[in-house]
């Protein structure tokens, strides 16, 4: 187990390095510079600014410096939010995104898994069709459609929640539900498929033949195998939630990291884009690692391999 | 073919023998039995025709701003009048009534009964114009904007899928066919790109190369080929071990020809299924970009940017959100059901692995 973890960690490092390198050269060799969007400035001013941010050095030197700073977890300064360090911005706004993501994941699992189990154990009945067609709706209505509509119905028309902001627990409901619903739909489909496959296996028939109650069979015997596809989906789901958070944070004005990434992209704030991309990529690689570990822990067949 | 009986007559045997069905005819027959998929196909064709041919029959241009007709709800009744410069203007009945509070009961009755009337020296009459989907905050016809946005959304969906197919199939078949270290290297590269979320990567490309429609095609196509490459590679790995591939190799057919003539035609099933399913995925990606302000730039529109506009004005003008949101969702529904139907018909196993 320990060697497996070490092995995976060693594989993750070149991946993260490759992402850093690709992102760095993509962003740095882009035509135009971050100051070109602003009003005309004198050549000296521009040069001083470039020198301040270290943009006057040759590209490879810049790359070396950037890597050196990264080694001490320093992501540099923001161009647009003057004088602010990217680290501070991430430290301040990421907890908000993380809270949103965790809440959304909770919504997704709490809705998706029971719906999938229900559909699988009552195959080809109303209890199967109803949740599964609702899931199709969830898949076909992307977050930026569901978000504003939920905001309009529950925020404006019914007045239950605020349409924007991030202050009280009520403000968490709409963003978390919006972000969670699409994943709940996928998870419901995955759970159903996984459960159906497991429920068809021999050991389930044995359990049935022994006369065990259905509850025990479904929850104790079948669920452990049937939940596997959902576990492997959690890694991609997390990556998806990050991009989903861009939209949700924009729709509901949540002060999270996603908003900073999008603003950085809109304003060509290079170090901001670089910093957040690297942060996200590391996060995702880490999440995938974690999912692999959970997978191995849950599935004895994988442990020996 | 399930028509075999216990004692088939010679005629039926002959008729079976005469018309050997190809994989595709078989698939089409199966698809035709799936009513949901067939309905989805026609809905999709209808929406496509509406967006691409509709403008020929539609009287309003998407960029024409009707200043007296801002934010008019769908099917609003319209009055028309000539202003001091002799220009024919339109105003909705509701707007006319709220703007002019001093209307006499007589005029109000005439407004209600669609009769021409005079107010402050201007002649008003009931216009035959209808704005089926209303107008937006700039007085532009929403239906024309939907057509324009649909052309971009659907166009991006198609072209970016084509680009990703081209790159993915080429890359995947080379990697799978050559195998060995080249394969290991090429797939490692795909894995690295995979660990970067698609949306972030596309946004990066948009930042680097500027925000134009062409860039959206290229950026999305450049990201979406990864899955296609994986699918193709896995299929080619199996195919190249089969006898016909070995035979082709044995008689000295060159590698590019084997890939083009023997590998790719056998891949068509999974490719078609995956392409159908990736069109909606790409349309969502494009719309997310446009929604965030990184995609299509005004005055151009896509369904994503229209939804974004609508979301900002939904409190006062909900139809600006609901109309594009419905078009977008219905199209996604249709494409997903069609893709699922095709997958069942062609009997392709899980297309995303």
Note down, in words, how this protein is organized.
The complex is a heterodimer of chains A (305) and B (353). Chain A has 13 helices and no strands. By secondary structure, chain A is mainly alpha-helical. Chain A has a domain at 95-266: MetI-like fold, CATH 1.10.3720. The longest helix of chain A is centred in the middle third of the chain and has 36 residues, at 86-121. The radius of gyration of chain A is 24 Å and the shape is flat. The model of chain A has no long low-confidence stretch (mean pLDDT 82). Chain B is mostly helical and 353 residues long. Chain B folds into two domains: 78-126, no CATH class; 142-350, Orthogonal Bundle (MetI-like fold), CATH 1.10.3720. Chain B is built from 14 helices and four strands. A four-stranded antiparallel β-sheet of chain B has the order 2-1-4-3. In chain B, a hairpin with a 2-residue loop joins strand 3 (117-119) and strand 4 (122-126). In chain B, helix 7 (142-178) crosses helix 13 and helix 10 packs antiparallel against helix 12. The radius of gyration of chain B is 28 Å and the shape is elongated. The chains are: A mainly alpha (305), B mainly alpha (353). At the A-B interface, helix 1, helix 5, helix 6, helix 10 and helix 11 of A face helix 9, helix 12, helix 13 and helix 14 of B.
């Amino acid at each position: 187990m320990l060697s497996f973890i070490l092995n995976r960690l060693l594989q993750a490092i070149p991946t993260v390095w490759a992402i850093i390198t690709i992102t760095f050269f993509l962003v740095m060799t882009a035509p135009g510079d971050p100051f070109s969007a602003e009003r005309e400035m004198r050549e000296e001013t521009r040069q001083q600014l470039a020198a301040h941010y270290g943009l006057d050095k040759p590209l490879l030197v810049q790359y070396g410096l950037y890597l050196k700073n990264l080694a001490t977890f320093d992501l540099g300064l923001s161009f647009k939010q003057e004088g602010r360090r990217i680290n501070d911005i991430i430290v301040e706004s990421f907890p908000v995104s993380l809270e949103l993501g965790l809440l959304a994941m909770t919504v997704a699992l709490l809705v998706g898994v029971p719906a999938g189990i229900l559909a699988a154990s009552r195959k080809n009945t109303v209890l199967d069709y109803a949740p599964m067609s609702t899931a199709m709706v969830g898949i076909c209505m992307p977050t930026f459609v569901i978000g504003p509509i939920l905001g309009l119905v529950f925020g404006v028309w019914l007045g239950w929640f605020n349409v924007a902001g991030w202050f009280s627990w009520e403000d968490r409901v709409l963003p978390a539900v919006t972000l969670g619903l699409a994943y709940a739909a996928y998870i419901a489909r995955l759970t159903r498929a996984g459960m159906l496959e497991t429920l068809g296996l021999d050991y389930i028939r044995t359990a049935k033949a022994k006369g065990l109650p259905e509850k025990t069979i479904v929850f104790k015997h079948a669920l452990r195998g049937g939940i596997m596809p959902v576990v492997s989906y959690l890694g991609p789901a997390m990556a998806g939630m990050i991009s989903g958070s861009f939209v949700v944070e924009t729709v509901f004005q949540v002060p999270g990291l996603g908003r900073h990434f999008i603003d950085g992209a809109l304003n060509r704030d290079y170090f901001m884009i670089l910093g957040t991309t690297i942060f996200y990529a590391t996060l995702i690689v880490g999440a995938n690692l974690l999912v692999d570990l959970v997978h191995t822990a849950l599935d004895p067949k994988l442990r020996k391999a | 073919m399930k028509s075999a009986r216990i004692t088939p007559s010679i005629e039926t045997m002959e008729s079976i023998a005469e018309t050997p069905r190809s994989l595709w005819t078989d698939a089409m027959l199966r698809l035709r039995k799936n009513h949901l998929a067939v309905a989805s196909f026609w809905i999709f064709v209808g929406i496509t025709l509406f967006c691409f041919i509709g403008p020929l029959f539609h009287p309003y241009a998407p960029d024409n701003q009707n200043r007296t007709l801002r934010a008019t709800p769908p099917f609003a009744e319209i009055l028309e009048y000539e202003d001091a410069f002799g220009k024919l203007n339109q105003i909705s009945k509701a707007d006319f009534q709220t703007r002019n509070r001093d209307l006499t009961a007589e005029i109000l009755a005439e407004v209600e009964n669609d009769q021409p009337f005079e107010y402050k020296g201007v002649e008003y009459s009931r216009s035959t114009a209808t704005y089926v989907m209303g107008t937006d905050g700039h007085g532009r016809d929403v239906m024309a904007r939907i057509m324009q946005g649909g052309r971009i959304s659907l166009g991006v969906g198609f072209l970016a899928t084509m680009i990703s197919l081209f790159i993915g199939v080429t890359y995947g078949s080379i990697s799978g066919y050559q195998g060995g270290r080249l394969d290991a290297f090429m797939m490692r590269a795909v894995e690295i790109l995979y660990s970067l979320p698609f949306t972030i990567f596309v946004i990066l490309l948009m930042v680097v190369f500027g925000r134009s429609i062409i860039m959206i095609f290229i950026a999305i196509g450049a990201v979406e080929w990864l899955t296609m490459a994986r699918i193709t590679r896995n299929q080619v790995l199996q195919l190249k071990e089969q006898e016909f591939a070995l035979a082709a190799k044995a008689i000295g057919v060159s590698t590019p020809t084997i890939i083009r003539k023997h590998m790719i035609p056998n891949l068509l099933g999974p490719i078609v299924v995956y392409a159908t399913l990736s069109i909606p995925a790409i349309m969502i990606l494009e719309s997310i970009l446009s929604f965030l302000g990184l995609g299509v730039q005004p005055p151009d529109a896509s369904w994503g940017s229209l939804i974004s506009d609508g979301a900002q004005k939904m409190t006062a003008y909900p139809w600006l959100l609901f109309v594009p949101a419905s078009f977008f969702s219905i199209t996604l529904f249709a494409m997903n059901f069609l893709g699922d139907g095709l997958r069942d018909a062609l009997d392709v196993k899980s297309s995303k692995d």
